[in-house]
Amino acid sequence: MDRRSALRTTGVLAGALASSSILSILQSCKKETRLTWKPEFFSEVEAKTISSIVDIMLPRTDTPGALDVKVDMFIDKVIARTYDDKGQENMQKEISDFNTECKSKFWDIFVHLNDAQKTKVLEAAEKNSGKINPGIWGKTVGEQEPIGFYRSLKSMAIWAYTTAEEIGEKVLSYDPIPGNFEGCVPVSEVGNRWSL
Prior knowledge:
It is globular, with a radius of gyration of 18 Å. Strands 1-2 form a two-stranded antiparallel ribbon. By secondary structure, it is mainly α. Helix 2 (20-30) crosses helix 4 and helix 4 (71-82) crosses helix 7. It contains nine helices and two strands; from the N terminus they run ααααααββααα.
């Protein structure tokens, strides 16, 4: 799981998807701390499962990790405030199925596994989940195969991560007042992806 290549691939998509209501949810996560966070949607086990998964997907390195920018809190709020009843039930079932599979392989739920076991579970999930087809002007190219829990969670985590203010201003290139338009610049000279 190469975090940087995943960010490169989804940087443009993340900018296009950011709507004002979702950005307000992301802003509300900034005010909460880990000590006071009470999930709006997830149970305690579900919240710990999501937190553990996104921490492995986007760990802290020389840049902040998913938990540093509260990706797990954001995902909880998005599901609580934007998913309908059926979508919420489906998410809970998928988390339960994910933990059931962990129990069948390693005799315990995901959060209680050691790092090597967690890595094996996520590598298998990566291998077995459908790929997200590219899109043009909001339309998916080709017929989209079912992507499943892992891939949809990964997509949401990357989206939340790349739209976090700290990442937008300190990790990605950021220029709130762009300069002159230069339309014919080779991609190799552009450098880092731009957050704004």
